[in-house]
Amino acid sequence: GGAKKWAREWENLGLAHITKGLQIPWGSLGPLSGKGLNICTYTKADAASLHKILVDGIQKQIFVQAKAKFYSPMFLVPISDGKDRFILNVKMLNKHIAQIPFKMENHTVVAQTLWKGSWLIKFDLTEAYSHIPISEIDQQYLGFEAFGNSFRYMTLPFGITCAPAIFTKLMRPKLAKIRSFAQTVIYMDDGLIISPTFEEAKNSTVRTLQILQALDLTINFNKSQLIPTQKLDFFGWEWETQEMSVKLSQLRHQEALSLVKSWLKLYNTNMVSIKNLARLIGVLQLRKAKIVSYRLIAHGSKTFNGGWKIFRGQLREALPSFSRAFEQLQMQVLLDGITPSSTAT
Reverse transcriptase domain spans which residues (predicted)? Predict the structure, then answer.
């Protein structure tokens, strides 16, 4: 499978030690002792989906049916394509894993990289972490239980605190091949390719797919945009290179507005909790949900970053007082005419 092909690539890159399985970077507390929580949270309606996930995972050598030294809870969450995603709750495990410093590319890098009239494609990888094998010793700490049986992860699970750093660092030499012929922004398992012309973008698409498929990486064609365009969604933003503008994507727009509507209903009935407010602040700040578009000047960084500094300042000014919070937010965030009275029903 993909892990074996990656093993050959690692050998070629002088990283043969990884072919025996990655060792988890344990922190000062060391590996866990005890059995943890072998909780399997799913409904009867989820049973068929969970069974399929386990069977597929065993066939792909992501899981193995075996006893473990430590168990973490698991559950399923629905995703946009109608399927379920298997989640291992590794909160307790993460307390024992060392932090690995690394730098991920973000929306600021996109703003600095785009130029007027450039052509864009994006790719999305599926089960990217499943290509990174874990050493047999450390697999024993990646246990979970389902249908009365014990299982272990054989590959890097989603949610492990060190996973983004490990995946990014291992992908870097492989993605250098793509960067040799195209401007590229990579965020975890999502990639943006930027080209000066439509034809160059098409050629870059073909070469990029060849490199990814040679590694047995699975491309999610439903989430990818492989026909060159001058407007696409990336990082939750809609980037447009003819007019050099960027605005919140329609999906993120609706998510933010839905949360604001819910908050306003609670606000009008005096049922707002600190937790509710904290969640709203998190969405508006972390997703930077200002519902207006920005014009990118030159490479865009000055206007893009300056706009967000102003917006964060407006939020900080608005939030100290509950009575003023959404009066300010309605003016500053331009919530498409939504008012407390219209959301109280």
Answer: 58-239
pLDDT of residue 44: 76
Domain boundaries, given as residue ranges, for the chain: 247-343
- Residue 244, classified by CB atoms within 10 Å of its CB into exposed (0-12), middle (13-18) or buried (19+), is buried
**pLDDT, tens only, 152-179:** 999 999 889 889 888 888 888 778 889 9
Closest CA to 80 of 257, 281, 249, 293: 249
pLDDT value at residue 9: 60
Q: Give the integer Cα–Cα distance in Å for 138 and 4.
A: 19
The two beta strands, 218-219 and 119-126, are: antiparallel
Residue 231, SS3?
strand
For tokens 């700490």, the residue is: 141
Q: CB atoms < 10 A from the CB of 235, how many?
A: 23
pLDDT computed for residue 203 by the predictor: 96
pLDDT recorded at residue 54: 95
What is the rounded CA–CA span in Å between residue 197 and residue 119?
6
CA–CA dist 257, 171 (Å, integer): 36
pTM across the whole model: 0.69
248 backbone dihedrals φ, ψ, rounded to 5°: -60, 135
In the chain, which residues have pLDDT < 50? 286-295, 297-345
Phi, psi of 59 (to 5 degrees): -65, -35
pLDDT of the residue at 121 = 97
Burial of 296-318, coded b for 16+ CB within 10 Å and e otherwise, reads: beeebbebbeebbeebeebbeeb
Helix extents (H) in 155-300: 163-179, 198-214, 250-268, 274-286
Quick one: pLDDT at residue 198?
97
* pLDDT the model gives residue 292: 38
